[in-house]
Design goal:
The complex is a heterodimer of chains A (295) and B (426).
Chain A: H1 2-40, E1 42-45, E2 48-52, H2 56-60, H3 65-98, H4 103-110, H5 117-127, H6 134-141, H7 155-181, H8 184-192, H9 197-208, H10 210-223, H11 229-235, H12 246-256, H13 260-288
Chain B: H1 2-23, E1 33-38, H2 44-60, E2 64-69, H3 80-86, E3 93-97, H4 100-107, H5 115-121, E4 134-135, E5 138-139, E6 141-148, E7 151-155, H6 156-161, H7 170-182, E8 186-188, H8 196-210, H9 212-219, H10 230-244, H11 257-265, E9 269-274, H12 278-285, E10 295-298, E11 313-322, H13 329-339, H14 342-350, E12 354-355, H15 358-362, H16 367-378, E13 382-383, H17 386-389, H18 392-406, H19 411-422
Parallel strand pairs in B: 1-2, 1-3, 8-9, 11-13
Antiparallel strand pairs in B: 3-11, 4-5, 6-11, 6-12, 7-9, 7-10
Classes of the chains: A mainly alpha (295), B alpha/beta (426).
Chain lengths: 295, 426
C-alpha cells in the first residue's frame, strides 16, 4: 500500500519534471505541425488566407513532375551520402585507429565540419566551375575535357561528394570513439588465432560498433531530407532542376512562388516520408542491433 | 533574502530607466522617429548617392533617422521583402518592380494608395514610366528608374577585330555568331544560374514571334491558352538553334550572372544580353580605368515573319511603394519627393541609370542615356519580363523550359513540362 503511494507520487513528480520539455515540444513541434496541416487544406491568395477546407493541394501532389524529381534526387542524394559520409567515415576511422597518437590526422579530417556551409558551398562551387575550376584544371593536365560537375547527370553526385567531404570527418569521430572503446584483448586474441587486420576490422570491430552504424544511418537518411544549404549555394535557382530536392522545392514553392497552401502540403508529405524512414531505421536497429553490448 | 530583494530592486529600477529612455517621444532629439526603407542590394556608386540623400533628408527632418535594409540581397524579391513586411519592423518605403508585383502588394493590403503623391509628381515624371504602377485605378508605385531588360551588349574591340557590324536581323545575327565561333570566341555569354537572364532574353523571342497580345494572354494564364502552344514552340526553336550551334556558353545554366560579366571583357565571349543596369556593373568594375570598357549594344535581332512588333522592347519601371501600415506617411512622401528631385536624379543619370525625371534626363548630354530614353519613349510595345509582369509560378515554369531548351531539350517537350506545372493555376 505504502509502496503504491510512493509510485503514484513519483509518477506525478516525474511528469512535473517533464513539463518544460513537453511545453517546448508542444510549442516547436506539435503546434507548428498542426498549423502546417491546417495551411495545407486552406485556400490562399499569396499570404492572405481565403478559407479552409480544400484538398486541392493534395490532389496536385501526385501530378507534380518537379516533386517527382525532388523525390528521386533526395533518395539519390541519400544513397550517395551513405557511401560518401558513412563509408568514408568508417574508412577514415579504420586509419585513425591505427594512428591513435595522431591528433593532427583527426583534426584535419574533422576540420570541414566546422566550416560554415555557405563557405563550403562557395568554395566547392568555384572548384567545380567549368572554365577556371580547380577540378577541371586538374583534368586538363591529363588531357581530359572539362566536366560539367554541377549539371546533369552529375549534379547530385557532385553535391554528395561535397557533403561527404564535410561530414566524413564527423562520422569518423563517432566510429573512432566506438572503436577505441573495444578492449584490445579481443583483437589480440584474434591475432593469435591468425586473423588478418582486415578480418579483425570487418569480422570483429565493425559488428561491435553496429549500434553506431545504425545511428549514423539514421542521421544520414533523415539528414538527406534537410539538405538545403549546399544545394542553394552551389546551384542557386537551378533552372535545369537537376538538383532539385525536397527542401529546395519546398522553399521555392512556399517563398519564391508564394504558394503557401501547396508548400504546406509538400511539408506534410515530407514529414510523413521522414517519419516512415525513421520507422524503417528503427526496425533495422531492432533487428540488427538488438540487445548487443554496445561500444 | 535582503540581498535578493536588493538585487531585484536594482534590476527593476535599471529596467525602468532603460525603457523610459527608449520610449521618449517628441523631444526633437535625433533618432526619435525611424523611417525604414527596404531595397534590393545596390552598387557602391548608388549607395553613395543614397547616403547623401539620406543625410539631406535627416537634416531637413530633425528627430528622424533613416534605416535602410539592403541586407536581404539577391533574395529580396522572393523571401527578403515578404519577410520584412511581416516583421516587427516593416519598411515604410520599399523598392519594387512595376507590374504584377505592385498589383499583388496592393491587392494583399501591403501597399498604400499614393495617388495624391503620384498626381503631385506626375508633371516631373516621364509619362511612360507610370506603366505598371497602378491597381484598380489607384497608383501605388512612384517610379524613379526605367530599364530596358534585354539589350545585346557587345565587346566593340572583338567586333572590330573580326570586321563585324551590329546585326539587325536574325540571319545577320547568326552570321556574326559563326564568324565569332570560327575565331574561337563564344558568341553569347549568359550566367543563367538564377534563371532570369535567359528567361528575359528568350522571353523577347516569344513576344516577337508569337505576337505581343497573344504572348500576354498566354503568360496571363487566360483560360483556353497553354504554354506548349505551336507559336511558343516555334519561337523557342530559335533558342534551341542557338544552343545547338554552340552560340551560348556551355555552362550557361550553372554560371552566376555576375561571374559571366568578366567573360565579355576577357574576350572569351562577345555578346552579353542584359538590361540597362549593365552600365552599373561597368561603372563598378571599371571605376579606376573606364577606358578599358569598350562596349556598345544592339537590339535583339528581329525575326522575319514574326507576328509580334519587331521594334518591341522588353522593359520595366522600378520604383517605390509606401507600406499600407506605415505610421510615417508624410515622412515617406517627403523622402520620395527628395528622391525624385532633379538634384538626385541627375546624379543617378551620371552613373548610367535611366531616370524617370524628365528635367534631369533632358539635362543629360550622355548619348547612351539619351538613346535609351528615346527607345523607351518610342517603343510601340513594352514587353513585361515574365517574372515581374506575371504570376511567379508561371514565370518559374517558363524559365525552366527556356533553360532546358538552350541545353538541347526540344521545345515541345520542355514547354509541355512547363504547361504541366502551371495547369493548376489556370
Amino acid at each position: 500500500m505504502g509502496g503504491g503511494m510512493i509510485r503514484q507520487r513519483g509518477g506525478t513528480t516525474g511528469w512535473l519534471y517533464a513539463v518544460p520539455a513537453l511545453l517546448l515540444f508542444l510549442l516547436v513541434i506539435v503546434i507548428p505541425t498542426l498549423f502546417t496541416v491546417t495551411f495545407s487544406v486552406a485556400d490562399w491568395q499569396r499570404f492572405q488566407l481565403k478559407g479552409i477546407g480544400t484538398m486541392k493541394h493534395y490532389m496536385r501532389l501526385p501530378l507534380d513532375i518537379t516533386l517527382g524529381k525532388a523525390f528521386r534526387n533526395t533518395f539519390l542524394y541519400m544513397s550517395y551520402t551513405v557511401v560518401f559520409e558513412i563509408g568514408t567515415g568508417l574508412f577514415l576511422a579504420a586509419i585513425a585507429i591505427r594512428l591513435r597518437r595522431s591528433l593532427l590526422f583527426r583534426s584535419l579530417i574533422f576540420a570541414p565540419v566546422v566550416l560554415p556551409s555557405i563557405v563550403t558551398g562557395v568554395l566547392w562551387q568555384q572548384a567545380f566551375a567549368m572554365e577556371a575550376g580547380l577540378l577541371n584544371r586538374l583534368l586538363a593536365v591529363f588531357g581530359v575535357e572539362s566536366v560539367r560537375w554541377l549539371a546533369p547527370p552529375l549534379t547530385i553526385f557532385s553535391i554528395s561528394l561535397v557533403s561527404g567531404w564535410v561530414w566524413a570527418g564527423f562520422f569518423m569521430t563517432i566510429f573512432y570513439a566506438g572503436l577505441v572503446r573495444i578492449p584490445e584483448s579481443i583483437s589480440e586474441s584474434a591475432v593469435l588465432d591468425g586473423a588478418s587486420p582486415i578480418t579483425i576490422f570487418f569480422k570483429i570491430q565493425l559488428p561491435l560498433i553496429r549500434n553506431l552504424l545504425v545511428l549514423a544511418l539514421l542521421i544520414v537518411t533523415t539528414g538527406a531530407f534537410k539538405g538545403f544549404d549546399l544545394f542553394k549555394v552551389m546551384l542557386r535557382r537551378d533552372p535545369l532542376e537537376s538538383g532539385v530536392v525536397f527542401p529546395t522545392y519546398l522553399v521555392r514553392t512556399f517563398f519564391e512562388n508564394r504558394n503557401i497552401g501547396y508548400g504546406s502540403a509538400i511539408s506534410v508529405l515530407l514529414t510523413v516520408v521522414v517519419l516512415m524512414i525513421m520507422g524503417i531505421v528503427a526496425v533495422i536497429r531492432r533487428v540488427y542491433v538488438g540487445d548487443m553490448e554496445e561500444y | 533574502m535582503r540581498r535578493l530583494c536588493y538585487v531585484v530592486a536594482v534590476l527593476l529600477i535599471a529596467t525602468g530607466v532603460l525603457f523610459a529612455g527608449g520610449k521618449q517621444e517628441g523631444t526633437g532629439e535625433p533618432g526619435d522617429t525611424v523611417l525604414r526603407i527596404a531595397s534590393a542590394i545596390q552598387g557602391p556608386e548608388e549607395i553613395r548617392i543614397y547616403n547623401d540623400l539620406v543625410a539631406e533628408f535627416e537634416a531637413n527632418h530633425p528627430g528622424t533617422r533613416v534605416e535602410w535594409d539592403r541586407s536581404t540581397g539577391d533574395d529580396y524579391q522572393f523571401t527578403g521583402l515578404p519577410s520584412l513586411l511581416e516583421s516587427d519592423t516593416p519598411p515604410d518605403i520599399y523598392f519594387e518592380w512595376g507590374g504584377n508585383r505592385v498589383a499583388e502588394w496592393a491587392a494583399d493590403g501591403y501597399a498604400l494608395d499614393i495617388t495624391d503623391l503620384a498626381d503631385e509628381l506626375r508633371p516631373i515624371i516621364n509619362e511612360s514610366a507610370w506603366a505598371g504602377s497602378e491597381h484598380e485605378g489607384a497608383t501605388y508605385l512612384i517610379p524613379d528608374n526605367q530599364d530596358i531588360t534585354i539589350m545585346m551588349w557587345y565587346n566593340v574591340d572583338l567586333f572590330n577585330r573580326y570586321g563585324l557590324a551590329a546585326p539587325d536581323t536574325w540571319d545577320e545575327f547568326l552570321a556574326v555568331g559563326e564568324v565569332l565561333l570560327e575565331n574561337g570566341v563564344t558568341p553569347i555569354v549568359m550566367g543563367n544560374a538564377d534563371a532570369w537572364v535567359a528567361g528575359n532574353f528568350i522571353g523577347v523571342f516569344l513576344s516577337r514571334w508569337a505576337g505581343d497580345d497573344y504572348t500576354h494572354r498566354v503568360l496571363s494564364l487566360e483560360p483556353g491558352t497553354a504554354l506548349n502552344n505551336p507559336r511558343f514552340i516555334e519561337a523557342l526553336q530559335f533558342a534551341y538553334e542557338l544552343g545547338r550551334r554552340g552560340f551560348i556558353n556551355s555552362d550557361v545554366n550553372t554560371l552566376g550572372y555576375e561571374d559571366s560579366f568578366a567573360r565579355l571583357f576577357n574576350e572569351s565571349a562577345a555578346i552579353y544580353p542584359l538590361g540597362t543596369w549593365f552600365t552599373d556593373e561597368v561603372v563598378n568594375a571599371f571605376a579606376e580605368d573606364p577606358e578599358k570598357a569598350n562596349f556598345d549594344y544592339f537590339d535583339v535581332p528581329s525575326f522575319a515573319g514574326g507576328a509580334g512588333d519587331p521594334d518591341s522592347v522588353m522593359g520595366l519601371n522600378t520604383g517605390w511603394l509606401v507600406n499600407a501600415n506605415t505610421e510615417n506617411r508624410n515622412l515617406a512622401y517627403d523622402f520620395l519627393r527628395l528622391l525624385l528631385s532633379e538634384k538626385y536624379q541627375s546624379r543617378f543619370i551620371d552613373i548610367g541609370r535611366i531616370s524617370t525625371n524628365t528635367t534631369a534626363m533632358n539635362g543629360s548630354d550622355d548619348p547612351y542615356i539619351r538613346q535609351v530614353a528615346r527607345t523607351l519613349d518610342s517603343t510601340p510595345v513594352l514587353i513585361s519580363p515574365p517574372d515581374t509582369g506575371y504570376d511567379l509560378e508561371m514565370a518559374s515554369a517558363l524559365y525552366e523550359a527556356i533553360a532546358k531548351v538552350i541545353e538541347g531539350i526540344d521545345p515541345a517537350t520542355a514547354l509541355a513540362e512547363a504547361e504541366n506545372k502551371v495547369q493548376f493555376l489556370r
